[in-house]
Design a protein that fits this description.
Distance between the termini: 28 Å
Helix content: 25-40%
Largest sheet: 13 strands, parallel
Oligomer: single chain
Number of helices: 20
Number of strands: 13
Structural class: alpha/beta
Length: about 500
């Protein structure tokens, strides 16, 4: 992994730049624009800014072994012209994988104009995070800089923040949170946290909580530009995550490994006070590898004024005890939870492992309730979630779908009744024009090898070829982690593509 020394990163203009050095630098910049004699050698200094920026677009992206950050650092340290050109890319992302947190914070405090360039924050913290990295030993001048920066925020506990940030034995999470406080234009936040927290949650969430309820004091920004948040939530509960649902600027929220079991009727009432109905403008809600009580899920879904994309990957892998479905999941069906969003929901992606489907006893279903989802264009779900236990209902499968549907994706899962429901797709091919005239594609993902699946695909292919609807049968290696990889795709199509933010993107 590429790392940088104290001298190299973060690159800061010297505090002791002399007049003569400024004169030399200005002379060099002026010389760049002076026409060179015909036939003389051309260097990078002779290239126009536009061409250099175009070349930078071809630098390698997020690659541990071949990362563009080192090139950007070298250019930044070359002269003031190159520093000015690459600064926006160099400081666009604060990533704990590549940036020393104390040095980056010192840079943000010392140069607020650079802090305004930070758009993306990607942090891994907690137990064992970056354990092989040596902590930076702050100098007296460093500590003075951090202390002054915290004082300028004009918050009541600025001294505590300064002491915690300057403490060599302090938690690194404090430094990450302090970076957030100094980055007013952040657009995307990714948090992978393996640490333990008390009931109030980590500091970064507390900063957002104060911003959302209007108690942020002094000069701390209120995350007005934060549009995307992704959190590994295995150590959090829904109450701790509640401030995220109050961010008015947020459009995408992706929570992974979230478990919310029923702890009594009062818990839902408390959560509703923390996350009121229609309190945010979230358009995409992704719950990956999670298991939530239906009442809790209902609160999260209802919080959005206009939810357009909903993804729910239901799994019981994170629950070791015997499940009492009625008590810990509730009696409300998933279709009823989503029903209030029937006028806005455009894409619905439901995945449910075999154990979850069996033990939840039909609660994770969309039975007989999709016809009223008038905006639904893209649907991905198991066949059994619509047909249910009555396999004779395959003939009415098409009648359960909305007229607005354009694509339907399904996975044939092992240890389920999916394979017995394939006749529903044959009926769809023959009768799609009666209810789903806009249907363009049906995609079926089949594990490979699958000796347990004895099905002749030829008739189904023939039915769809006559209908004009594109049928794709995709054979996928039978790997339990495959869905986790495809979950990163935020598009409505089935092709896999990463949604990681370009680490030094010039967009926005």
């Amino acid at each position: 992994m590429t790392m940088f020394s104290r001298r190299d990163f973060p690159p800061l203009p010297s505090y002791k730049t002399t007049r003569s050095r400024w004169q030399i630098s200005n002379h060099a910049i002026a010389h760049v624009h002076t026409p060179r004699p015909l036939g003389s050698a051309t260097t990078i200094n002779d290239l126009p800014d536009e061409l250099i920026l175009e070349i930078l677009d071809h630098l390698p992206g997020i690659d541990i072994d071949d990362f563009q950050l080192s090139t950007l650092v070298c250019l930044s340290l070359t002269n003031h012209r190159f520093h000015r050109m690459v600064a926006e890319r160099l400081y666009a992302t604060y990533s704990s994988h590549f940036c020393e947190p104390y040095l980056f914070l010192r840079t943000m405090v010392a140069k607020p104009q650079l802090a305004e360039l930070v758009r993306y924050v990607d942090v891994t913290c907690g137990d064992g995070a970056h354990h092989d990295r040596n902590r930076y030993v702050a100098t007296a001048q460093d500590k003075k800089t951090i202390k002054e920066g915290m004082r300028l925020l004009s918050i009541s506990n600025w001294k505590t923040w300064a002491v915690d940030c300057n403490s060599f034995d302090g938690e690194v999470e404090v430094l990450h949170s302090a970076v957030l406080m100094h980055a007013p234009n952040i657009k995307s936040l990714v948090i992978e946290d393996t640490g333990s927290h008390d009931h109030t949650g980590p500091k970064w969430i507390d900063i957002i909580r104060k911003a959302t309820i209007g108690t942020s004091s002094g000069r701390v920004h209120r995350f007005e530009h934060l549009q995307s948040v992704r959190v590994g939530a295995s150590r959090y509960n829904t109450s701790q995550l509640a401030p995220l649902f109050r961010l008015d600027s947020l459009r995408l929220l992706h929570l992974r490994d979230l478990v919310a079991l029923d702890t009594g009727g009062r818990s839902t009432t408390v959560l509703q006070r923390m996350i009121p109905q229609d309190c945010n403008r979230i358009e995409k809600l992704n719950l990956e590898h999670s298991f939530l009580h239906m009442d809790t899920l209902g609160v999260l879904v209802a919080s959005s004024r206009r939810l357009k994309i909903f993804k729910y990957d239901v799994t019981l892998e994170c629950i070791s005890h015997e499940l009492n479905a009625h008590h810990e999941l509730g009696a409300t069906k998933l279709s009823m939870v989503l029903h209030p969003k029937r006028d806005s929901l455009e894409s619905l992606h439901l995945s449910c492992d075999a154990r979850a489907e069996e033990e939840t006893r039909g609660t994770i279903t969309l039975l007989d309730d999709l016809r009223n989802f008038v905006a639904l264009k893209h649907l991905s779900c198991p066949l059994t979630s619509i047909i249910g236990a009555r396999l004779d209902a395959s003939a009415t499968f098409i009648e359960s779908l909305p007229r607005s549907l354009i694509t339907y994706n399904t996975v044939i899962r092992k240890y389920t009744d999916d394979k017995n429901c394939l006749t529903a797709l044959e009926h769809m091919a023959a009768n799609y024009h009666t209810n789903t005239q806009k249907l363009e594609e049906v995609r079926i993902v089949v594990p490979s090898p699958a000796p347990w699946l004895m099905y002749d695909w030829e008739p189904l292919v023939r039915f769809f070829s006559r209908s004009g609807v594109n049928l794709v049968v995709e054979h996928e290696e039978d790997d339990e982690d495959d869905f986790g990889e495809s979950w990163n795709d935020d598009s409505t199509e089935s092709s896999q593509s990463s949604d990681e933010v370009d680490l030094y993107s010039n967009e926005g």
